[in-house]
Amino acid sequence: MASSKAHHATGFAAGVIAAAVAARIGGGHDGAFYIGVLMSFIAGVAGSTAPDWLEVAWWSRARRLWIAHRTLTHWGIGWIALLAVSYRGLGHSIYAAAAFGFACGGLMHLLADWPNPLGVPWIAGRHSLNLWNSGHCDLIVVAASWAAAWFVGRHVGLPGLDLWQHLRL
Question: What is the pTM of this model?
Answer without folding.
Answer: 0.82
